[in-house]
Amino acid sequence: MNNEIKKKYTFQSEVKQLLHLMIHSLYSNKEIFLRELISNASDAIEKLRFQIISHPKQLINQESISKIQITINKNEKTLSIYDNGIGMTYNETINNLGTIAQSGTKSFLKKINQNNKEKNDLIGKFGVGFYSSFIIAKKVSVYTKHAQESSDLGILWESEGKGDYTIQKIKLKEYGTKVVLYIKDTEEEFLESWNIKNIVKKYSDHISIPVEIENYDEKNKVISWEKINQAQAIWTKNKKDISKKSYQEFYKYITHDTKNPLLWSHNKVEGNQEYTSLLYIPKKATWDMWHRENKHGLKLYVKHVYIMDDAVQFLPNYLRFVKGIIDSQDLPLNISREILQDNKITQSLRKSLTRRILTILNNLSETDDIKYQKFWNTFGLVLKEGLAEDSINQKQISNLLRFTSLRTKKQEQTLSLKKYLKDMLKEQEKIYFITADSYNSALNSPHLEIFQNKNIDVLLLSDRVDEWMMNYLPEYQGKKFQSVSKSDLSLEKLIKKEKIGTDKNEQKSNIFIEKIKNILGNRVKDVRVTHRLINTPVMVLTDSNDMSTQMAKLFSAAGQPVPEIKYLLEINLTHPLIEKIKKIDNIETLSMWIEMLFEQAIFAEKGTLENPHTFINRINKLFLS
Ligand code: ADP
Ligand code: MG
Fold it and tell me: How many domains does the chain have?
């Protein structure tokens, strides 16, 4: 039978961009192409195994032994990688090798174009996969035949990695996939057997499928196959037989990260539930940690058989930075993503894995400050989501939180709640905090004057999630949290001790306060004398049950309706400006001053004014008076 005519296709534009990037950004770590191809071969074999187990009635070809075989042909300058995995159909070949399925690709390419320095790192993390062949090959031929194909026809896909590729049907005996790389003249080191063996050992030792290389005995003219890797899944081995390096390599293999992980935890659990988990915490966040399409989750195995990548059901969203595998003895092999969701076993595994991660983080925080700080600086923001998401583990999560505060005097978040409690004043009943748009605006808020003055520490919160987070964190070890921008009796008790002034003075003050109330009318909830201020004449607070300013801002930024906040205006009677104003008899002049001070206080609280122009006019008038 004749081979079918060759058809030419052009690559999807994202593929073209990726190919261009790879070939022209002088990839510093060229050898990873082999890791990618072996990983594809191993995936294909695992997919076939899974297919056979989950669809026992289908007619599927399978040889008894799965294998990945590497052949070098020095005369033709080719390096080939063959696997007897699932193979590809005609359409699958077009989709898999001519397009990129991940929806995040566009944003990835955008990011990579803005970020030249980290290009190599990013490419690696994205998992360039198959296309990395073109770093070292001037042409790639893929022979593939799907395991379910009953005819003697397979597919030949060929490309030089430029704009297009060709496909044709050809006669193929065996199912599976063979990738033939025509090595560039400048990359001939990849035609050296010893070199290839070293690379396979380095990256693919832990792959559970044997990787063999062809040895040709010139003298006797015989071919033999030499197994290069250990071919045992790393997590099935005994902990004591696994080197640190193997753990690290396995991490890099599953994540495409170029850096070693921060830490890992390998556990075999027997009893009610039988499973093995190998979980890693990376050093750096993936580029898409905050993207909606972010791929996360664990690699799922059931009874050592690969089931799926990115199984998100085993960890809560706030632990989405955790990478690794879970191998369950109890789940059924034919499990689908939908079934996973409501499965009792999944839920109980999720509970245990969550607890495990929180425990190893807690141990780290207690034993290695420097490492823990690195973790917090990278992933603290994600972990904070846990307070809302995971109320059961709230206590453990709050132990892991780190803050910046008045006393820490630096922006880096290093203070734990435990330490805050330890250093609290004896008579202090609550944990004080302030939320603001930025570290500096929190630090310079007039609300903090009295705290500075009395040496009471205040947590300074300026991450976007903070205001929201604090709603879910009512207390820590029996101590309530209190926003300093809200009115609060505990603070009044703390600071009112040394009350100044005589009764007569108080009478006078009361008259003054009444005047202010008359001027501002129902624009304020109340006006009162403060003991909180030192260098600022006035400030506003929200009432203890009202929505905070920061929360109102979040609502309005999200386009939600915001109820009008009525503030409490507090007056610092000892401030020279107030002393001056107190003496003004002319009610019109006094009004102008009060209006101006009220706006000042609102400005300081909100960072914006509804009508800046009126404010400026008023100040200018006052300057001239
Ligand atoms: P990824 O492995 O992350 O999906 P790749 O670029 O490495 O991305 O591969 C793209 C797709 O091509 C794979 O998802 C798979 O469907 C297909 N593929 C690649 N190599 C093989 C192979 N050896 N056997 C079967 N399918 C393969
Ligand atoms: Mg791949």
Answer: 4
